[in-house]
Design brief:
Helices cover about 0% and strands about 40% of the residues. It is an all-beta fold. The protein is flat.
């Protein structure tokens, strides 16, 4: 049985997030490398001090288009 899979969001959307990955080499040296996390079609906005609401991403929200940027090759 094949299940329906929603379109994947990509790193080119306004709802993407950046985090850091800790990488340790053989000598014990630690570096932090940035990593972009794909978005999910929603963003958090502060409407009033301390009041966050979820809103549709202004770039891709409510869209069926996965939004690949021209020339972008997704990782295998």
């Amino acid at each position: 049985m094949v299940e329906s899979v929603p379109p994947a969001r990509t790193v080119c959307h306004g709802c993407r997030q950046v985090t850091h990955v800790r990488v340790e080499d053989d000598d014990g040296n630690v570096t932090l490398r940035p990593m972009i996390l794909p978005g999910e079609g929603v963003t958090l906005r502060e409407r009033a001090p301390g009041r966050l609401v979820q809103e549709s991403c202004p770039v891709c929200g409510e869209s069926d288009d996965p939004g690949w940027i021209p020339g972008f090759v997704p990782p295998a």
